[in-house]
Amino acid sequence: MDCYDYFMDKSNFYYLDEKEDYERFIQILNYSPQNIAEPYKKEEKVIKTIKEIMDKYQLQGFEKKLENFESLSDIEKGELLYDIKETNKQTFAYFYQDFGLDKSKVSLRIKLYLLSLEFREFQDITHTLKIGIISCFPKNNSLLKKEILEKIQSGELRQDRDEIKNFINQKQFNDRERQLDNYLINLRTLLNEKKYSKLSDSLQQRIINQFNKIEQILQREGVK
Q1: Which residue in 156, 105, 99, 157 sits closest to 134, CA to CA?
Q2: Does the pLDDT value for residue 63 go beyond 80?
């Protein structure tokens, strides 16, 4: 598999907020050395035809949308999957597996659809949200979800997982904690962009000395 094919295959990525992807990722990490020597082979999915699926799960009324599933938007996919789930929750997991979908892809699209229902006033935003950021939205905090959508709409927040998570974390901090978190974010940016190594040796050491002092304070206070 070349690089292009690898990155086009979304199953090579893991949404660690989703239980199924997290467990799959842990399985990969826990492979024994003997298994690591052999290339990982994913189980081949036997995808049923639309007619077979319609007959098996009694999904009359959904045939046209199922046939055109790939041409639907993520919200439309979420609406379709949600409606099918509501018809028979007991067999839903078997249905989407037969249809060739995994739990993570199904869950994210249903969440996006429900988000669009909860915040109809932000349809211009929810219809253009990147599917990968949906898992960042808090589950039981409508006020915070609304604020995130407002920030995205105004351009104050980008559709970036790390940026949204930092924003959510800071909402839980008091003013001093928020100030400290900003310092840490700036420091991480400095390291990620390779700017720290461009400083003079003496300046790098001065910064390290300051952090040594912070560590000593925390140790004296029994925090660390």
Answers
A1: 105
A2: yes
